[in-house]
Amino acid sequence: AKDDDAQLRPRKRHKFDENRTIKKKFKVQPTTLNEQRECKMVLSPKEVSEVIIGPKVLDFGKVTVGSRNVKSFFVSNDLKTHVLVTVPVNIRDELKESFPSSQVVPPGATAGFDIVFHSTSIQTFQQAIYFTLNDHHKLKFVVFAEVVQIDLTLSHDEMMFRFNEYVLDSTLTQPVTITNNGNADAKFQWEEEEPNNADHKPFVVSPMSGTVPAHGSVHADVTYDPGANNESIVALVLKVENGPSRRLVCNGSVSEAKCVMMEKKVDCGAIPVGCIKTKTATIKNVGGHTAIFNIDPLIPGITCTPTRGRILAGSTQELQLAFRPIEAHLYQANLMVHVRGGKDLKLPIRAEAKVPQVGLRTDDDAEAIKFDDSFVGSCSFKLLHLVNSGQIPAILTVDLSECPDFVLADEDKHLITTTATGLEEDISGPGGISISKPVNDDDSETSDLGSDAEGSEDGSEPRQRNLAGQQDKGLRYRIAVPGNKTISFHLGFRPTVVDAYSFRLNISLAGSDISEKSLQRVIMAKSLKPRLVMSQTVVDFQSKVVMREGTSKVPNRILLKLSNEDDQELEWQLAVDPTSTYREIFRIEPSMGKLQPGHSTQVQVAFTPLGVKPYEMHVPVYLGRNQSTKYTELTLRGIGSHPNILFDRPEVVLPVTPLDVPSKLVFYMYNDGYEALDVKYKVPFADSSKIPLTVTFPEGSRLSQTSNTLPVEISFCSSKPFSFTANLDFFDEENTKFSIPVTGCTDNCIFTNLSYTFAKRVKGYELAAEGPNKAIMLIDKEEEILGQPSLNGIEALEKSSDTPRSHSQYKGSMWSSFSTSEDNPSSAHERMLRKVYSKKHSERLRVWLNMNVLQDPIDDLVLGMSAQCGRSLIELIEVMFGRAPPGRVNPDRLSAVKKEAVAQILHQYEEIISFVKGYGGLLAGIRPEYLLRYEDYCRIDPPGTAAGGERQTSANAGASTMSTNVPGTASNKGRHLTERRFMYRAMHAWMTLIFQIIRIFGLAKVHWKSFSTQHLTPQLKRVSDSEDWSHMKQDPSTVGSNVYTVGEGLLLKWLTVHRQAIYDPLDEPAPPGKVKEDTRIINFGSDLMDGKAFAAVLQCFAPPLERRFDHTVDGGFRLHPEEREDYEHNMGIVLNAVKSIGLNTPFTPRDMLDFNQRDMLLFVMNLYMNLPAFIPKTTVKFKGHLHQEITKTIELKNPSKYVIDYDVHLYGSDEFKVKESRVRMEPQTTSYFAVSIVPHFKKPIHSRLTFLSQRFGSLSASMVFNLETDVSYEGTAKVIPLETTLYEPLNYELEVENTFHANAQFNVRYYQERLKGEETYPEEESSHLFPEAFWSATDMVNVKKGDKGKLLVQFLPFVRGDYRCLFVFSDEKVGEFAVQFQGKALATAPFEKAFVQTESNTPMLKEVVFPLKNAALERGLSFFAERFKQFKSRDKKSTISGMQEEGQKYAVLYGSPFWAGPKELQQGEKEKKDKKAE
Questions:
Q1: Is the peptide bond before 1172 cis (omega within 30 degrees of 0)?
Q2: What is the percentage of the chain residues whose pLDDT exceeds 70?
Q3: Host H or E run for residue 1125
Q4: Under a CB-based contact definition with an 8 Å cutoff, are residues 1397 and 1458 in contact?
Q5: Phi, psi (5° rounding) for residue 934?
Q6: Is the pLDDT score of 546 beyond 90?
Q7: What phi, psi does 481 have (nearest 5°)?
Q8: Mean pLDDT throughout 1352-1380?
Q9: Whole-prediction pTM
Q10: What is the enclosing helix (H) or strand (E) of 778?
Q11: Which of 18-22, 287-291, 437-441 shows the lowest per-residue confidence on average (mean pLDDT)?
Q12: Contact between residue 1382 and residue 1281 where contact means Cβ atoms under 8 Å apart
C-alpha cells in the first residue's frame, strides 16, 4: 500500500536554468562507508525516475570560434540515498574543459556540472553525452552548438570627408564603430588595401590595432589629412584574426588651393637679447578658391601669429613674426605653412641676437653705491647713468619689488609715475623710464575679463600695501636706452624703518635673466632713528584757486606735525630762502622753535597762488644752530588755477532703457574755489524736442565753502528710438562754462536694451499684453533714480573708487541685486556689465557670425575683428545691407609708417560708425579707437579725458582741462589704457556695433509684408485666413511695443502660431469654471526654455523631424518639464534635430538654458532665416519603369558675385542617389545637379533633396525639393500566355527568380481582370456569381539571393473571353517585381450529340434531355472547392454550392438557323425531374 501511495504522489517539479552555474560542487568519489555502500546500489526503474536531470538538450546556439561557453547540466537527487553521477566529458576535445567528471549527490540535493564548450574550428556540433548513475544506469543528454567565425562589423562601409568652410583645422576626424557580434574577444588590425610607400598618408586610423570585447564595440577615429592632394579615395581593410576582413572606403576631397609667400626670406638683423622685434610676412592666395592654412610651431624665441586662418581667393594674409631671443646666438628656422589641399610653403627666417653694450655709471665711478645715513622719513638720492655704447637699443628692467624703500626718480628728482603700456620688451615702445606692470598682473587673453583688479586714480598700477598701510612690495621699472645714448636718473632712498641695507641692484635685460657685470652694483644704505619726525616730507596742495581781484585772499593751509623722538631738547628751523621768488607764495608759521623730548608741535603751511601755474619750493630743515648740515628737506608743491566746478566722473552715461521708460542718473558736482555760487545750466540743443533731457537739483543749486557738493539728477525719456551724446553746460555768475558730456539711449530692441531687462530682473518688471491683438509692453514696477554709470559707462570697469560721501536717498537700485557695498555703487554695475558683455556672450555672437555671415570666419570676436583691420566688419555690412559702407581702406594702400597706417584705419572706423548711425544705429557711446588692435591703439595719441569740467569763457574759446583731487575722480589724460582695461572697452564697442548692424540691416528684414506673404506653413496659412492677413497693413500685436521692434514681435508671433498649433491640443484642459492659460510667447527667455516653440517650428517646416519629438516613447520629448534635467533633455532633442537638417550649431543644451534674451534672439533669427528654405520649392517627378534607372537634372544658378557653397542632403528613401555631397558655385555661373534612382518598388517613393547654404542673406538661400517616383510595370513584367476551356483548370508552375542582392521573402499579390471584347456571352450576366479565374495557394515565397523558387498558379475560367492577371512579388526590404499572365477561356465541348434525319422543308420535333445540373460547371466548381479545402473555408464553399441548389434560369442559343425552340429555360427549386425542350 505504501508503494502504491508513493506511485500516486506527484513528482517534485524542478526548474533548471542552464545559464546559471552552481559554484559549490560535491565530492568526486564517496568517502564514508555509508556513501560507498549507497553509491554501489542498483536502482529500480522507479528509483531511477526519482533522479531528475535537465536540461536534456544543451543548445549553445551560435558561438564564435575560440570562444569559451559555459552551460549547466543539473542532476537533482529526490532519493533518500546518495547517488554517484559520472559524466564522461573527455569524449570530444570541444568539451574537455567541462568539470567535474563526477559528483556524489546527497539526498534531496542538486548537483551542477559545468559543461564548457570551446571549439577552434567552424562546425555544426552535436554530441550525445551518456552519463551513469552509480556506475550501473546509463542516461544521456545532448549538446548542440553552431560554431561560426568571428564577425566584426563596421558602422560605415564608406565615409565621406568634406571640410566645412568655417573649420580652420588642417585635418578632419570622423568616428567609426567596430562591433563584435560574437561571444569571443576579437583582435583586429587596420591596413591599406593597396599599400604605398608614400610619406604622406591621407587617411590614418587610431587605434591601428586592438581587441573588441565579446558583444561589445570599439570606437576608432579616421583622420583625413589632404596634404597637397585635393581628392583622395583609399580603401582601408580591417583584418580580423580568425574572421573575415571588412572594407572601409574613405573618400576625401577639398577645394584645390594655391598660395605663395610674397617674401623669399625674413631677416630680422640684430636684436637685443630679451627684447621683442616684429617682422611681417605675407601669404597670397593666387588660386580660385578659399585657402585654409596652418603653421607649425617655430623654435623657441620666435613666434608667429596667426597660426592658422582663411585666405579668400585673390586676398592676402599678413603674418606677424615676433623675435624674442633669450640668449645671444644666431637664430635660423623655416616657417612651414601647410595649405589645406595645396602645396606646403617654406619661408627661411634669420635673426641674430646680441647682448647690448650697456653699462651703469655713477659720478664717482665707485663699485658700490653708498647712501649717507638717512633718518626714517627722509629721502636721499644718488644720480646714476645708463650708457649704451652700441648700435642696438637696450631695454632694461630694474626690479625693486623686494626693496620697497628704494624708488627711481628722473633727473629733477621727480618720482617716476608713468606706467608702461604694451609689452615691456618691445623695442618699438617709448624710450625713457616707466613703471612696469606688477609681476602678478595677468593681461593674457585667456584671463577672465570679469576679474579686473582695481587701479590707482592716475591709471598706474597700485603698490601693494600691508595691513599697516606700508608698502610691502616695491616697483619694477622699464628703462629704454637707445643706441649710443645715455639715460640719467636718480635712485631714491626713502626709509620707513630703522635698518641697514646691503643688496645687489638687479638690472637685467628685459625678458631674460641676463645681467651684465657692467650693470651690477651693490647698494649700501643705513636708516637711523629720526630725531625730528615730520608728518610728511612733501606737502602737496594740488590745485588751488587764484583769488580774483577785489576778493579777500584767504590762503590755503595744511598743518604739518613735528615730533621730537630724541631724548634731548631739539631746536629746529625751517629755513626759507629769503631770495626765493616763492617766499610769498608759500608761508610757514612758525618757522623755528624748540621741542622737549617726546613733545610735538604743529606748523602751518600756507599756499596763496598768484597765477595759473605750478609752484614748487624746497625748504631745508636744520637742527640746532649749526646750519652747515641740513637734517632733511621739506618739499612744498601746489598749482594755481581758476575757480572751477568739478564733477565726479569724466562723462555721464545714462542707462539704456526701453521706450517711454525714464532713464535717470545722479552725479555730483564739486565747488573748487567759489565762495558762493548759484549754478545755472543749459540743456543741449535748447530745443527739448530734440533731446528730451531734464536736469534737477534735489538739494538746490547753490555751492558754497560749507556746502561744496551738489547732487544733480538727469532724466531722459523718449517714445522713439533715440541715441545722443552732447555737452551739458553749467555756468557761473560770469557765464564761464563748465561742460560734461552726456550720453543717452532708448530703444525698443533687445539688441540695445538688454542691460535694462537684465538688471531689472530681480527688482522687477513685467512683460504683458492687454489682449491677443495688443502689443507686448514692458511695465516697470517701480521708479528708480540711478546713482552710478549706465551700461555704456565703461569707466566703471576701470576703477572702483569710493564716492565722496554717501547719498543713500539717491543711490540707484537698478544694480542693487548685484551690490555688496553701499559705498561702491559702480562695483554692482561692473558685475552686471561683465555678465551682459562677457566672454561667453561674445563667443555666441562670434559663432552666429561665422555660421551665417562671414566668408572668413574668426576665432575670437575682438581679436579676430580688430586683427583684420575692418575687413570682416565691412563684409558683415555688405552681406546684410547689400553694399559696402564708405571709407573702406585698401590693405595694399596702407602707409608703411605704422602710425600713419593706424590713422587710416581709425578714419575708416569713424566712417563706418557714421554710416551705421545714418541708418539708425544707436552708437552714441562708441569710440572708434576701441575698435583697433591694442598695439595700434598704443600708437595713437593718448586720449585727453578730463575729470573736471570744461572751462570756457568768451575770452578763452579753447577748453582748459582741469585735474582734481576730488575723491572718486580720475584723469587718464596723456595715458593709454592698460591692455586689460582696453579689452573691456573693445569688447563693449565691438559687440554694440555688431548688434546695431544686425538690428538695422538684419532684424529690419523681418517685416509684415514678407512675413504675411512668403513661406507660409499650413499652420501660418490657417491663421492668415482666419485673421485675413491679405487686408492688413500691419499686425496690431507687433506694433507699439516699448521693448520689442516689429521684427521681434513678428518672430514671437511666428513661434507662437506654430507652438499653439502643435502643442495646445496636447495641453491639459483648464479646470471647470476657469479659462485656459494663454500660451502666447511674450519673451525670448523663459517662454522658450521648454523647447516646445522650437520643436513646433522644426516639425512644421521639416515634417520628417516629427518622429524626433514623439512624446509617447521612452526618452521622447517631455511635454511638461519640471526639473532642469527635463529642460536640458528637451533642448538636447531640439539641437539634435537642428543638426540633423544641416544647421550645425556648437551649442549644448546647457548653453541654451544659459542664453539671455539677446542670445536667444540670434538663435531664433537663424531659424527664421533658414527654416523657410525647407518648404519644398516643387516636386520633381521621376517617371519610368521598375528596375530601370531614372535620372533628373536640377538647374542651379548663382547670380551673385560671391562663391556659394551648398551642402547636399537627402532625407527619406535611400534609393535616391546623388554623386556629390557638396556643390560649389562660382559667381555668375549655372550648375546642373543630377539625381538618379533605380526604383525597386512600384509604390511612390518619397524623399527630400536639400541644398543647405552655408550663408544666409543676400548671398544665398537654402533650397528643398520633393522627390517622388511614378513607376509602372509596363515593359518590365514578364508575360505568360495561358489558354483553356471553361470550367477546366490549367495549372502553371512559375519560376520565381531572385535577381536582388539579398535573400528575399516575397509576399505574393495578384490583380486580375476580364477583358471586355466585341463579342458578348450570356454567362457574363452571372459573372459576379463565379469565382475569379486566377488563383495561387501560396501568398509567400522564400528565395535565396541568385536562386529560383516555384509558385503554382491555377487558371480556372467560368466565363468565356480574355483575362489578364498581374502577380506582384514584394519584399519590403529588398524590392519587388511582377509577372503578367494573359489567359483565354474557350467554350466547353458538347456533353451530348443528337442526330436527326428529316426531309427538306419538313419540320420535325426532337426532345432533348436537359440535365438538372451542369456537369461541366459542377466539375469546375468542384475544382474551385478544392482550393478552399486547403484553407478550410466552409462559408465560401457553401456559397458556391448554392449556385446549383437554387432555381436557375438558362438562356438557350441556337447555332443554326434550321433550329428553333424556347429562348430560355428555368428550373424550379424543388423540381427534381429533367426538363424537356423542343
A1: no
A2: 84
A3: helix 1124-1140
A4: no
A5: -65, -40
A6: no
A7: -115, 110
A8: 91
A9: 0.68
A10: strand 777-780
A11: 437-441
A12: yes
